[in-house]
Amino acid sequence: MLFERINGSGLGFSVGSIGGSKSYVRNITFRDSYLYKTYKGIYLKFRQTTSSVIEDILFENIVMDEPEQWPIWIGPAQQSDSQNMCKANPCSLCWPFLAGATCDGEQNSEFRNITLRNISINRPKQGG
Questions:
Q1: Which is more confidently placed, 1 or 82?
Q2: Cβ atoms within 10 A of the Cβ of 85, count?
Q3: Does the predicted TM-score (pTM) go above 0.85?
Q4: Distances (CA, A) of 32 to 10, 38, 41, 96, 118
Q5: Which three-class secondary structure string do you get for 21-70?
Q6: Radius of gyration (Cα) for the chain, nearest Å?
Q7: What are phi and psi of 89, to 5 degrees?
Q8: CA distances from 74 to 25, 42, 80, 114 (A)
Q9: Residue 47 pLDDT greater than 90, yes or no
């Protein structure tokens, strides 16, 4: 899939939150795009799963202005599925800022061939 010339907002460019048994996401390109005040900018993530793969993903010529949280996050999904917003599922929304918040990695899933080329991050709020 090709996504290009996008003016994005909201969560940013997200790939993942796949779960279940043997899930795969492949061959996705984001290019020549602009992200303004997104929560995250580039977000690749897994939920708790049994053996999943995200591979052959390209981010190219992306400009981010003032991302609110992490400009680039590649790892476990940072979310909560309960009334407690800081409960890790698998990674707490409060991690690493609140003592006791946890971020549990996904041991059975893999990221392969993830390319970030010509990414500009301007005035990040945190994590820059």
A1: 1
A2: 11
A3: yes
A4: 18, 16, 14, 31, 10
A5: ECCEEEEEEEEEEEEECCCCCEEEEEEEEECCEEEEEEEEEEEEECCCCC
A6: 15
A7: -150, 70
A8: 14, 8, 17, 9
A9: no
Biggest alpha carbon–alpha carbon distance for the chain: 41
The C-alpha atoms of residue 88 and residue 78 are separated, in whole angstroms, by: 8
Distance CA 47, CA 25 (A): 13
Asked if residues 57 and 2 have their Cβ atoms less than 8 Å apart, the reply is no
Question: Closest by alpha carbon to 1, among 25, 23, 24, 34?
Answer: 25
Q: Give tens-digit pLDDT for 85-128.
A: 888 888 888 888 889 888 887 677 889 999 999 999 999 987 65
Give the residue-averaged pLDDT of 40-64. 89
Residues 6+ apart with CB under 8 A from 18: 24, 25, 46, 47, 49, 52, 54
For β-strands 13-21 and 42-50, DSSP reports them as: parallel
Chain centroid, CA 97 distance in Å: 18
